[in-house]
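A.,

Following up on our hallway conversation. Structure tokens first:
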């Protein structure tokens, strides 16, 4: 029986994780949940259904506390960090954004295994996270990184030639002019159902840039050996090319329950976690290079990752501000990367070269957010 803690329980990954728990009561028990609290009724229902002992929340704490007598409700901005430090077998970090970094570090520090769906932990603070994680303590949940992880089982790092991340291409992979993209269009992902920030990042391929940085830290592979390709069907989740010219790919229908369940139950797989590919039907899988002129976020992410230090945190934080500005109607879709690029250029020389602690990450992010907001004022 695996005791698990789920951070971000009301989001897409958190909800699917709880579906897996419900379907496998002999394998998992949930000891704590955390969420922002913007969907209090769902969080309350989850806590009751899975009989959790602790709930962490930022908003609506009094409402949730009143509805859950006998449950310890931790509130405030650091609630998820406190919940992550509860002793358990696995902490699933499904928080969106760099606010997930502190909980990741807290979980690692008390020797909890971390099933990581919060890519920003590694983008903003990869050196800190990797410096604290022990072997097999940090397990990927993103489908691309789970695919690479699975393809590398039993393989030697010295024999890796290339990691190849696949990207659906989002809703605009075949659209030539992105200047008139609307918010509604950007939120219509053709394959995956995700939150608004991740969906917009997928539409701009910013998400793939973040995933390249994440892959660098997870697998210790140089950026020069990490690529991304468009794969609209989203069945091949990623691939590893080896020095002998062979490539191993991991394939399954576009469903996150496979990666989630493997990270929660590692080293074992959860039977029937997701439906397999139906081999009685014909399938066509296509791959194509990414048009880096239309989608410049990947090249910028690679540059920030290679420079390192505080620059990836600046890259990510400025994107969070720019995406929110797009959601609020303040800027157009193509201006997201323009804002991020301007912030990176402005702060490149002043960014710290080595992250010493969480305070360094926070300082870099605050500089980025302040600079981005100043740029947005000029735009407005």
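Then the amino acids I'd put at each of the 380 positions:
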């Amino acid at each position: 029986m695996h005791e698990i803690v789920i951070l971000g329980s009301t989001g897409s990954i958190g909800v699917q994780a709880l579906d897996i728990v419900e379907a496998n009561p002999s394998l998992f028990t949930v000891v704590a949940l955390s969420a922002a609290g913007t969907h209090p009724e769902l969080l309350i229902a989850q806590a009751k259904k899975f009989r959790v002992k602790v709930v962490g929340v930022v908003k609506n704490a009094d409402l949730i506390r009143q509805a859950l007598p006998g449950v310890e409700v931790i509130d405030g901005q650091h609630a998820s960090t406190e919940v992550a430090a509860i002793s358990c077998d696995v902490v699933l970090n499904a928080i969106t954004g760099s606010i997930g970094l502190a909980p990741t570090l807290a979980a690692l520090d008390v020797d909890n295994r971390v099933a990581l769906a919060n890519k920003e932990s590694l983008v903003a603070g990869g050196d800190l996270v990797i410096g604290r994680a022990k072997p097999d303590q940090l397990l990927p949940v993103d489908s691309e990184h789970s695919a690479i992880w699975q393809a590398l089982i039993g393989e030697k790092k010295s024999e890796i030639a290339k990691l190849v991340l696949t990207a659906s291409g989002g809703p605009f992979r075949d659209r030539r002019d992105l200047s008139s993209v609307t918010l509604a269009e950007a939120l219509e992902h053709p394959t995956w159902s995700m939150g608004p920030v991740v969906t917009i990042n997928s539409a701009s391929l910013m998400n793939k840039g973040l995933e390249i940085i994440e892959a660098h830290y997870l697998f210790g592979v140089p950026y020069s050996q990490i690529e991304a390709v468009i794969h609209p069907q989203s069945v091949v989740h990623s691939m590893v090319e080896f020095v002998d010219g062979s490539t191993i790919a991991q394939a399954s229908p576009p469903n996150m329950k496979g990666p989630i369940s493997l990270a929660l139950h590692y080293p074992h797989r959860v039977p029937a976690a997701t439906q397999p590919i139906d081999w009685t039907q014909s399938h066509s899988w296509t791959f194509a290079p990414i048009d880096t002129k239309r989608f410049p976020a990947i090249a910028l992410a690679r540059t920030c990752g290679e420079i390192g230090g505080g620059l990836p945190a600046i890259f990510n934080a400025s994107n969070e501000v720019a995406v929110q500005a797009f959601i609020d109607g303040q800027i157009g879709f193509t201006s997201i990367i323009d804002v991020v690029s301007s912030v990176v250029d402005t702060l490149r020389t002043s960014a710290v070269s080595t992250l010493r602690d969480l305070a360094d990450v926070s300082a870099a992010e605050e500089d980025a957010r302040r600079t981005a907001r100043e740029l947005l004022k000029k735009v407005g």
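The chain has a mean pLDDT of 94. Curious whether your intuition agrees with the design.

B.
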